[in-house]
């Protein structure tokens, strides 16, 4: 009996060993003679720099494709300010002068220039954002002030109110007779909007709401247009209805109310309203940020923006949405345009910085071979590595945000729930990712221009200071990335529960299946240039990384939640979640860039964009090569090939860098050429007169 057991065990071990051996033989066979649907690509050395066909780029043709159908309205903005040099912001200007100049710029653009952005906020958002990009490139403070007036104050009236509000306020907002504020943020509550403490209590005896600031923490803070120019404010407050029980009132959640804050004729502060100036800021000092406190300020019942919830004369509450959370979500969903605009505008800021730094690097000469002329600093590999991947990213972000604007415009027309969810996720992720990238890049551009980049005339200081807050307002970037990660986890759960995935997340189905399988040992070793520049390889690599991060963080969350609870587990995995969200956004950006390359009708422009797209993709893969190597998605020799090709693409993009930056087609007074590349007298004239080439 004992011998029989031993014999049986030996047989079992022998079978297991045979299975392992067979699996190993099959793996080795794949290395020698892989089975695949497409022919195996020959391994080859990267081509040397002299063998790639030169690309003749037409700046005009590429610019036409880049800027699209709203180029004309942007040209009108630039032409207006070019014709009014006194409205161009000087280098040295005080806070108070800057605020008044910003108001003159906005009023002049609307009334004298005949450009009416508010008319496009709902009917043609893409056109509105094109105007905002152009205006912001003239002066970022002006861009933000315009956004406060039309996107925030005006947008809240149009999107959260009903016909009676549009009829009453539209014209005054449009022609800037009714300058207004968007009073959401409080001293103690920024990102957590549901925690706002300002209250609006309905008084059935007078048919009014009473707006109150219950404590110092509830003071409305950082409110644009409040300190000097605003006459109205959209105030977000908790709607309190009187009841006949022991509670006395019922909290119906956060709602929006139109509250007059200054007299229309005298401009004096109205009774019960206290306004304080937030003072000098790090940047955007042309915007008059202030603090608002309300002491029993009475407003008519009609001033409730009642699209999602209304109060009748007798104090009854009605809404088409059954819960506070649904009403809150619907309210914030209508305000997502602010994030869309910030992502789009941030790309505009990045364009300006890249144009200035690249042009400077092409013109500035330092050192060179013995007894030979000095060479352009962009000929140095280190300078190429600073600026060319950044230039590639600028193009990538441009096409990604164009798609976001198109989706937002479609959402405003269709009100499709699935599309609303997609736009919410994309706007949160792109705003967070792009503004963070731009903030870092502004410092890199300044450093790339050496000491001359430190001169105020060259704009890096003002661009960096003005843009810095983009990472915070309209949603803190860390908070927004967590929202994206949460949505990814939700889609992950739905996939494994058999649910359908929305459009933005469709790639997860195929990519997650790929991740659950082992990396292909053959493709992990392909290192030909054709393979590495294949968009399928690039996009698969991006999506593989996202899928790997998604599954691993889901497992970690499940593990830690058993001991730490949901909140503790989320906090334990927070950095992992942020990396996941960034990886997903990078995958989306690359996907849209690849589509833009394919859709470009001009052959030479398409070749240039393909080169730039390949640099964007391979530079990102190389920057996270450890992730791919850890799981053998990329073999060592392939990793070296990726690095070598990314270096080579940097060099090739450098060769057409002037055409690429010129295609952004920004006016000279926006991208002032850095001093240090002209004769001393020319530099002095430029510095003192504040004009560029």
UniProtKB/TrEMBL annotation:
- Which ranges carry the Acyl-CoA oxidase C-terminal domain? 534-677
User: Which residue intervals define the domain Acyl-CoA oxidase/dehydrogenase middle in the entry?
Assistant: 181-297
Q: What keywords sit in the KW lines?
A: FAD, Fatty acid metabolism, Flavoprotein, Lipid metabolism, Oxidoreductase, Peroxisome, Transit peptide
Give the top-rank taxon of the lineage listed in the UniProt record for this protein.
Answer: Eukaryota
Gene Ontology molecular function: any one: fatty acid binding
Protein name (Swiss-Prot/TrEMBL): Acyl-coenzyme A oxidase
UniProt: FAD binding residues? 185, 224
Q: Where is the Acyl-CoA oxidase C-alpha1 domain?
A: 333-489
Record GO biological process: fatty acid beta-oxidation using acyl-CoA oxidase; lipid homeostasis
Q: Name one GO cellular component term.
A: peroxisome
Which cofactors must be present for this protein to function?
Answer: FAD
Is Cell division one of the keywords?
no
Which CDD domains does the annotation name? AXO (cd01150)
Q: Where is the active site?
A: 474 (proton acceptor)
Short name of one Pfam family:
Acyl-CoA_dh_M
State the similarity comment.
Belongs to the acyl-CoA oxidase family.
Subcellular location per UniProt equals: Peroxisome
């Amino acid at each position: 009996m004992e011998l029989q057991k031993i014999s049986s065990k030996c047989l079992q071990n022998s079978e297991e060993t045979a299975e392992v051996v067979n699996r190993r033989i099959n793996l080795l066979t794949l290395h020698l003679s892989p089975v695949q649907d497409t022919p195996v690509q020959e391994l080859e050395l990267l081509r040397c720099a002299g063998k790639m066909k030169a690309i003749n780029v037409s700046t005009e043709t590429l610019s036409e494709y880049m800027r699209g159908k709203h180029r004309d309205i942007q040209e009108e903005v630039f032409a207006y300010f070019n014709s009014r040099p006194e409205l161009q912001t000087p280098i040295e200007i005080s806070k108070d002068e800057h605020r008044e100049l910003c108001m003159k710029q906005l009023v002049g653009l609307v009334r004298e220039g005949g450009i009416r952005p508010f008319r496009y906020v709902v009917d043609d958002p893409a056109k509105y954002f094109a105007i905002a990009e152009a205006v912001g490139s003239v002066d970022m403070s002006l861009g933000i002030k315009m956004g406060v007036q039309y996107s925030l104050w005006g947008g809240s009236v149009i999107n959260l109110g009903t016909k009676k509000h549009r009829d009453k306020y539209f014209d005054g907002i449009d022609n800037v007779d009714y300058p207004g504020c968007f009073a959401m943020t409080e001293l103690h509550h920024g990102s957590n909007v549901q925690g706002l403490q300002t209250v609006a209590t309905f008084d059935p005896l007078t048919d009014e709401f009473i707006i109150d600031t219950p404590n110092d923490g509830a003071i409305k803070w950082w409110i644009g247009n409040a300190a000097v120019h605003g006459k109205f404010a959209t105030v977000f407050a908790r709607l309190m209805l009187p009841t006949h029980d022991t509670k006395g009132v019922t909290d119906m959640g956060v709602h929006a109310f139109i509250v007059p804050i200054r007299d229309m004729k005298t401009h004096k502060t109205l009774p019960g309203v206290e306004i304080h100036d937030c003072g000098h800021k790090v940047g955007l000092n042309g915007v008059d940020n202030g603090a608002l406190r309300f002491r029993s300020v009475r407003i008519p019942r009609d001033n409730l923006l009642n699209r999602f919830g209304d109060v009748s004369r007798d104090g009854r509450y009605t809404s088409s949405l059954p819960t506070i959370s649904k009403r809150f979500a619907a309210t914030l969903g209508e305000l997502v345009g602010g994030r869309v605009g910030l992502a789009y505008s941030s790309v505009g800021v990045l364009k300006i910085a890249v144009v200035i730094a690249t042009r400077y690097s092409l013109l500035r000469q330092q050192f060179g071979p013995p007894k030979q002329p000095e060479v352009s600093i962009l000929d140095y590999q280190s300078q190429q590595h600073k600026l060319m991947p950044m230039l590639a990213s600028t193009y990538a972000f441009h096409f990604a945000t164009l798609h976001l604007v198109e989706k937002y415009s479609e959402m405003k027309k269709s009100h499709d729930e699935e599309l609303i969810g997609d736009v919410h996720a994309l706007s949160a992720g792109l705003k967070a990712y792009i503004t963070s990238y731009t903030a870092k890049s502004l410092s890199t551009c300044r450093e790339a221009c050496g000491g001359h980049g430190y001169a105020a005339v060259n704009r890096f200081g003002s661009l960096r200071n003005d843009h810095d807050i983009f990472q915070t307002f309209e949603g803190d970037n860390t908070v927004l990335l967590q929202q994206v990660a949460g949505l990814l986890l939700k889609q992950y759960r739905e996939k494994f529960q058999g649910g359908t995935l929305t459009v933005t997340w469709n790639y997860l189905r195929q990519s997650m299946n790929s991740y659950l399988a082992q990396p292909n040992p053959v493709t992990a070793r392909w290192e030909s240039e054709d393979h590495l520049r294949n968009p399928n390889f690039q996009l698969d690599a991006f999506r593989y990384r996202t899928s790997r991060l998604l599954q691993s963080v889901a497992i970690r969350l499940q593990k830690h939640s058993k001991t730490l609870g949901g909140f503790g587990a989320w906090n334990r995995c927070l950095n992992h979640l942020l990396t996941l969200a960034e990886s997903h956004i990078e995958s989306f950006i690359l996907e849209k860039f690849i589509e833009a390359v394919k859709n470009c009708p001009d052959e030479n422009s398409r070749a240039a964009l393909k080169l730039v797209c390949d640099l964007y993709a391979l530079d990102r893969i190389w920057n996270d090569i450890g992730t791919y190597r850890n799981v053998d998605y990329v073999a060592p020799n392939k990793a070296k090939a990726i690095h070598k090709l990314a270096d080579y693409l940097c060099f090739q993009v450098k060769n057409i860098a002037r055409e690429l930056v010129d295609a952004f087609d920004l006016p000279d007074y926006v991208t002032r050429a850095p001093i240090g590349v002209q004769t001393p007298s020319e530099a002095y004239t430029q510095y003192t007169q504040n004009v560029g080439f």
